[in-house]
Design a protein that fits this description.
- Pfam families: DUF4249.
- This is DUF4249 domain-containing protein.
- The chain has helices spanning 2-19, 220-235; strands at residues 37-44, 48-55, 72-76, 82-92, 97-106, 114-120, 126-132, 139-146, 152-159, 167-174, 183-188, 196-200, 210-218, 254-268.
- It is mostly beta strands and 271 residues long.
- It has two domains: 37-132, Immunoglobulin-like (Sandwich); 139-268, Immunoglobulin-like (Sandwich).
- The protein has an eleven-stranded mixed sheet, with helices on one face. Strands 8-9-12 form a three-stranded antiparallel sheet, with no helix packed on it.
- The longest helix has 18 residues, at 2-19.
- The termini are far apart.
Length: 271
């Protein structure tokens, strides 16, 4: 009886609240955005030195970061040679990568050697960073198994070096490297130090599929950069996610300067 009486008393109040306009416009003063240099440079042995230099944009500005034609890019090699990259925007169709600066200088360093980058522009901004070349971690075995529905899972195995802290990026492409990857994961050897490691997939491939499997041995700074990008994407538009800041490896701006060393296998799924 008491519960029924309480409900009868509350009903008018609920009706009043439901009929009220609870929406309220709030003006938020956003701080002015100060553009910073955004630098990406990946050194690959046997390939020319290339870099991309752009400028960060505000939240409500055009989504494509503006170019910085007056930016000067220098990469110092392991021998102390200071190489100037020329401003020459180009899109590499085979990988889909866009570069603004390039050089004919070929990367030929050995594991353990250090390269440095310096980027300046007409506004007095300066970005610096360094990378230590890593050794390739070979893929030991690529195998697949079919289920009773003729669907195949993929297993890629390699051995982790127990003497160092290692970080990896594992990617699988179907047919071509120019499109998006079918699998892309970033991990460390925190739980697998010195062990034989196998990365697997679900039963998702068909007989005749051509798969390109790539195992990158990456620096910790690149690992953190990639993970922070993934976290930022997950937080975008999610009201329950913690905002995430990109962890750059360069000083004075945003971006990454690192080396890419990898082992790659191409297989065709067959029974």
């Amino acid at each position: 009886m008491k519960q029924k009486l309480l409900l009868n008393l509350l009903m008018p109040l609920l009706l009043i609240l439901s009929s009220c306009d609870l929406e309220k416009d709030i003006d938020v003063d956003l701080p002015a955005h100060e553009p910073q240099l955004v630098v990406e440079c990946y050194l690959e042995k046997g390939a020319p030195i290339r870099a991309s230099v752009l400028e960060s944009a505000g939240y409500f500005e055009e989504p494509t970061p503006p170019l910085v034609p007056d930016a000067e890019v220098y990469v110092t090699t392991h021998t102390g040679k200071r190489v100037k990259l020329q401003y020459k925007p180009v899109l590499i169709k085979s990988t889909g990568r866009f570069y603004t600066h390039t050089s004919t200088e070929i990367v030929n360093g050995q594991p353990g050697q250090v390269y440095q980058i310096e980027v300046t522009d007409g506004k007095g901004r300066k970005v610096t960073g360094f990378t230590k070349l890593l050794a390739k971690v070979p893929i030991e075995e690529v195998e697949w198994k079919f289920n009773d529905k003729d669907e195949a899972l993929l297993l890629t195995s390699f051995h982790d070096d127990p003497n160092t802290d290692n970080y990896y990026r594992y990617m699988v492409h179907v047919d071509s490297l120019s499109g998006g990857s079918d699998r892309d994961m970033v991990t460390s050897d925190e739980l697998t130090n010195g062990k034989r490691v196998s990365y697997g997939s679900s039963y998702k491939y068909d007989e005749g599929d051509t798969l390109i499997i790539t195992l990158y041995h990456i620096e910790k700074q690149y690992h953190n950069f990639l993970r922070s990008i993934s976290d930022a994407k997950d937080a975008n538009g999610n009201p329950f996610a913690q905002p995430s800041q990109i962890k750059s490896s360069v000083e004075g701006g945003f971006g990454i300067f690192t080396n890419l060393v990898y082992d790659r296998k191409m297989v065709v799924i067959k029974k």
